[in-house]
Amino acid sequence: MDSIHKLINILLPPITILLLLFFLPPYLVFKTLSYIIRSVCSENVAGKVVLITGASSGIGEHLAYQYARRGARLGLVARREDRLCAVADKCGQLGSPDVIAIPADVSKQEDCKRFVGKGVNYFGQ
């Protein structure tokens, strides 16, 4: 058993270093190129329907603004109706052709079915 541990302690570090030297540079080149391609060729969401939950604040609010700038049709869902309506108005000003604000709580199954159904009925898809 000790001889196996000694052998592993002798062989494993050089093998690990060689594998890192062999695989790490191509991986980093691939990741860099894919990042550049993604940043140059962003997806066209103009006219597509995007349903965003938690849209009254935080990440959901900023996602709504980004999609509005790109011309997406937005279905915004959150519990706070007053704040949600303010976000929907701003999205309309930023360039979204069609915005619907749906007050709902995603922790309730009935609300989830209701806002998905309302979005499909409103946008037709």
Automatic annotation (TrEMBL):
Pfam assignment, any one: adh_short
UniProt keyword S-adenosyl-L-methionine present: no
Localisation per UniProt entry: Membrane
Classification via SUPFAM superfamilies: NAD(P)-binding Rossmann-fold domains
A GO term, aspect molecular function: oxidoreductase activity
GO annotation (BP), single: steroid biosynthetic process
Alphabetized InterPro entries for the sequence: NAD(P)-bd_dom_sf, SDR_fam
Topology of the protein relative to the lipid bilayer: Single-pass type II membrane protein
UniProt GO cellular component terms: cytosol; membrane
Transmembrane spans: 7-30
Keyword terms: Lipid biosynthesis, Lipid metabolism, Membrane, NADP, Oxidoreductase, Signal-anchor, Steroid biosynthesis, Transmembrane, Transmembrane helix
Domain of life: Eukaryota
Principal subcellular localization: membrane
Family statement: Belongs to the short-chain dehydrogenases/reductases (SDR) family.
Protein name: Short-chain dehydrogenase/reductase SDR
